[in-house]
Design a protein that fits this description.
Four copies of one chain form a homotetramer. Chain A has about 270 residues and is mainly alpha-helical. In chain A, a hairpin with a 4-residue loop joins strand 2 and strand 3. Chain A is globular and about 75 Å long. In chain A, about 60% of the residues are buried. Strand 1 of chain A pairs parallel with strand 5 of chain C, so a sheet runs across the interface.
């Protein structure tokens, strides 16, 4: 079935003949394996060009900052999945990645869009605080959430945010989107009535847009980072499984608030 | 429901208090962000210790070697999934990862087990060729496939194999498992009757076991590598979608060999 | 980590003690197994009550209408995934389900929301065509797509739409949302300038809202239906694999439009 | 890239022209929608033929028996995934399905293979107990687990097993595989030294092989059934989220047994 424009497919990422695998115009075996780091290769794959030293530093720092944060829900989901299906590591990784949605980490792309709106509103050399205020008021009027600000645990800025900004400064990366992110942070109390601080989902686009990383690929960065963390957890799970223990603990205080058939005596056991 | 031993869950990967996120005993913000590459952090996460320079070189080379190989089936599945569900990048990545199974790339772990069997058979200082022959004959007797040898395209060794071995040699990594892998390659014709060459699924454990990467984590390396390639393809897909074009092409010559109701006139259109 | 309100979890779906499994207030073994069809049980599970005979008929018809439509992209993705990872049937089903997104079938929920907007606009006994016109004009002004209308293949209404509406009429189901769906269809040419016909994504909420199926569960109906179709395809795939053949065909005309290293001679081979 | 035999793909499940969608030789709109239940359609899709009344009864009973069993690990994984990514229902369903692996429910297929081994060993009219004993002893010698026997909660048979067998008897289904399953149950104490009772993973193939359901499709039955239960849980999750509450409870007693940096003071908070 043709759906939409059914044409000849094409790609600019990779091709090969019998002797040579080409990736982004380079010879994989001659120019890349052993000569480029995985981080730089990820940049080349996604953007089509090798990173500057500043871009390498910022991309490495970002991937390191968000790869692991303990037994968060998606890690629990992944470990439970491996406990139930230990033969399919790929399935457990997939289950963990499926939790990289709009609520957790997924705000990096929407926060990036917000920054670009403020950038466009300010224009060249414009007042970032005024532009931030105007855009925030529009979000407020349209009842849209402000992505990337506020944190359930940290009242102060998440310490990872400070480090990411410091890495960008130390390596001479473009700091324009950090300036925008901080302008928004300054204007939020006036619009929202609360002092919401920049969280890591806003810091990611603030530093990555500054190294020219494309907006549509922003969501991919937390996914790649978290995959590394998931593999560590799943390796630990294979050695000493806690997937079912987590699941048991999760329901120890579970309350059933539905109906019961006549004669059913509730016992301590829950399903 | 308690399934298996329901106990208190525990982990050695990460913990945190209000100020500090600890990963593998190090302070994430002070010691890791901006100070360690993503590759080295992956090694730290999985193994609990930082890599040697040789280990960094080999791990980077391996991840680069297998991250991307064109529009292979799992990339197609991923791009079709994004075309159908463009709002959920995480779903398309997950679909692509679900194809990292036993047939494609997944043989790295089983090949690693084969190498360790040969290593144990040979014992300290033993004859690797004799051990390889004995183990291969047992596989043959038990009708088990030999994982990591043979390739649908390449009669000669996949050029990525040579490069991975060269990187291990150049950086002074332990070459013991490469020697085992090559001993197996030499003995295969005698046991199988065909000249099957080492493919990349055997090269991965050959070099990674040599840097002390744990066997249960081997499967995770192609998954992490492929995630980088998938994100590149999905970024391209968001810009210029070919998911439905691939699907259209795939069924242009599709034949229906089931029954038809009376009066059904086959037309050029396929479902 | 507490995210949002960390409280005691509760559920109204199921509980159990050592003797009895309770589902929605009924005893699974005594009252349900062998006494209720899977379709009626699905209704009970989702809504908390057993369906009327009209609801059973409409729900069965809907599930049958959308379970299978040939080698659509999500079925291809699923079969390619099984070919690459034949040991993990659950992974291939998951890959197929991940394509049930906003573009394919996923419009049933958004179309349902559109119908409820028109219903609320019309009020009790109000003019549905006038309400439809007003709501469509608002969608147009906000540049929102009209979900559930138009089809790449069929200029006339998809024949499945007529059958679903006929089943609802034959069994005396509430036809109010069908009336709304048809009012929208009549008003579309005036607002859009094109004659877009009701497709199956609009027919699903039109009949299911009429049997009291809840709006948030609408997206689940295509997912359950497609799972049945996927299992049929994957059973066929296990017997006679076409996953790699589909993938081969998909890229036969693939064009590489990226850069090439010096000396690379393009050959017929792609990947 | 050609992988394996790259030929023309073919299918016997479905085709269509501009007017008619054909499924398994029948006209979807004329013969199936409104005229066949979803359960019967699932049978038709998978096997190519409509079920007998006994087969309908047994297939319905099986699907109802295993669709829902409370907040089991895969349901928790699914609800946590939706809490983190509420826009992608398909992702949360997929995460739940990925837990339908070898440990939970997935044993239905391996148990079915065991029954067929016993059947073949016994031959026509042979002694099932003797055949069961012989096959069990071979499993024991090869250190293979006996799939489908034993249960973490129930010392007696799971009550769902009795009900499934009763439904098969009431409707005159072929009881041969039930007889095999019970012969194995009788012989287990002698071989294993423990009294492991038939669990639901053995009951599924015992009744489904008796209605001619194909062995390779057995794993699909729990997946379809569980999808119905998952959709109920995810509908409840959308209305009243417990995904993060489950995750919070799961780690309340989490112990960190890794290293700590100097000066880290453990607090009550865990990651």
């Amino acid at each position: 079935m043709k759906i939409g424009k059914a044409t000849v497919p094409h790609t600019a990422i990779s091709t090969s003949n019998e002797d040579t695998i080409v990736v982004r115009g380079e010879d994989l075996c001659k120019d890349l394996i052993g000569k480029i780091s995985f981080t730089d290769y990820f940049h080349l794959l996604v953007t089509g060009s090798r990173p500057t030293p500043a871009a390498t530093a910022v991309l490495d720092a970002t991937l390191v900052a968000i790869a692991e944060h303990g037994l968060v829900p998606s890690v629990q989901a992944s470990r439970m999945t491996l406990a139930a299906a230990p033969d399919a590591l790929q399935g457990a990784v997939a289950a963990g990645i499926l939790g990289c949605g709009s609520v957790i980490l997924g705000a990096s792309e929407t926060a990036g869009r917000l920054f670009i709106e403020v950038e466009e509103r300010a224009g060249a050399g414009g007042d970032l605080d005024a532009a931030a205020l105007a855009v925030l008021q529009e979000y407020r009027a349209a009842r849209k959430a402000i992505p990337g600000y506020g944190h359930p645990l940290h009242k102060a800025r998440d310490p990872r945010v400070e480090r990411l900004f410091a890495v960008a400064r130390e390596h001479g990366a473009n700091l324009h989107y950090i300036a925008i992110a901080e302008a928004i942070e300054r204007q939020i109390p006036q619009v929202i009535g609360k002092d919401l601080r920049l969280n890591v989902s806003a810091a990611i686009p603030a530093v990555l847009l500054g190294i020219g990383f494309p907006l549509p690929a922003l969501k991919g960065v937390p996914i790649l980072a978290r995959t590394a963390g998931l593999i560590a957890h799943l390796t630990e799970e294979l050695e000493q499984s806690i997937g079912f223990a987590l699941s048991y603990q999760a329901t120890r205080e579970l309350e059933y608030d539905g109906e019961l058939p006549a004669g059913f005596a509730a016992t301590a056991s829950h399903s």
